Amino acid sequence: MGALNEEHFIKEIENGVELDCLDLGFEDQPETVAIEDAVKVLLQGLGEDINREGLKKTPLRVAKALREGTKGYKQKAKDIVQSALFPEVGLDDAVGHAGGAGGLVIVRDLDLFSFCESCLVPFQVKCQIGYVPSGQRVVGLSKLSRVADVFAKRLQDPQRLADEICSALHLGIKPAGVAVILQCSHIQFPNTELPFLESNRHGWVKALVHSGSGVFENELADVWDDFLSLLKFRGINVDKTLMKDPKKQCWCPSQFSSSAEVTGRPNTGMLTAVTSILTSLGENPLRKELAGTPSHFVKWLMNFQNANLETKLNGFACGRMNPLKQNGEVSHNKRMYTELNLSFCSQCEHHLLPFYGVVHIGYYAEEITPVIKSRLQSIVRFYGFKLQVQERLTRQIAETASSFLGGDVVVVVEANHTCMISRGIEKFGSSTATIAVLGLFSTDPAARAKFLQNIPNPASGGSGF
């Protein structure tokens, strides 16, 4: 396939085909402008230069992502359902089990995302919906997904999200019953107080919630067993014992994280800015569930404030190891060592949305010491805890590590970006890998291949969300 013609490429851009998210028509609206102004205050509170090249368009990008991610406030589930109700002979309450001859209908594994109402950090949802038709009515199956998305595209809590989806479908379809199960995953707040040697620990808060109406109101009813069995034979295992007392689950990490984890003092201007964002999204900042949201979001952001390199790294460039020979060959006393799966969490500077993953580092040395491992973990943590792009993160880790490893370093960063799922593109399950090579690794394909072969396959289901 031939290369893209540059003249054609420029013409496409001039005609409005942009390499950014689609303009949904609210770019110049007062609400968008208000969010942009608020984001500028947040960036300045982090010690950032809002005129820096990578941040110039961040306020607009964040505003568009937030408004797109909460567009469900302006949508009505009732309109979606009523336009897709179809008659189906034989579906009658008096015939067969529950809803009649048609029995139970399930749509499985709907991928959704929502912004957490407690901290404004996105969380991901696996949604399972079932309903029992009645009254000789069925609904277009795609509408189940669309109704779920209407309520997901609002500031949410898992249990309320399940209840709202269930209630809307029950009122719209008027079935014998509706069941909704949500499997939710929320990124854990990074703990900057943990020792560097524990930086490979990275957690997720998970919640399993459900809601039922009609024949599903009784959690012990046989129809629930039917529902769960139809999920299980497709590999979706839901433990019924975990579905009890869902409203008592502690969900958002901001609700039980220590105040000691906050870096820096509370900034009144930043708190006011987040309150302005909530108002611009159409929410009531005085709603009790949102009372702590500004402080929780600022707490999250302050983990990524701009910091002084020399202060944080404490002279890691000192104690440089013996470099390679002048001809670029590795000393016979050196061998390849690897540090794999060093976890990190960072914040995309383009959208102020988290990205997370693991770092793999390879290097040649005469021996490995605990000090080297500690330094590498510290470097990963330092460069992760700031506004970043993955390409820069990879390069910075490699260059800093090479300053004391002798210049012969390879770094691979594997990451999942929430901006890939919480914006218009919504590419669930995608991941990104970047590589930086220095010294021998930049000239010797065999050395690179040897290192890359050491990178383990990710464990099934171990991606977090």
From TrEMBL:
Residues 35-187, 272-455 form the GTP cyclohydrolase I domain. InterPro entries: GTP-CH-I_C/QueF, GTP-CH-I_N, GTP_CycHdrlase_I, GTP_CycHdrlase_I_dom. One of its GO terms (cellular component) is cytoplasm. Its EC number is 3.5.4.16. Pathway: Cofactor biosynthesis; 7,8-dihydroneopterin triphosphate biosynthesis; 7,8-dihydroneopterin triphosphate from GTP: step 1/1. Keywords: Hydrolase. GO terms for molecular function: GTP binding; GTP cyclohydrolase I activity; zinc ion binding. Pfam families: GTP_cyclohydroI. The keyword Hydrolase applies. It comes from the Eukaryota. One of its GO terms (biological process) is tetrahydrobiopterin biosynthetic process. Belongs to the GTP cyclohydrolase I family. This is GTP cyclohydrolase 1. It comes from Populus euphratica.
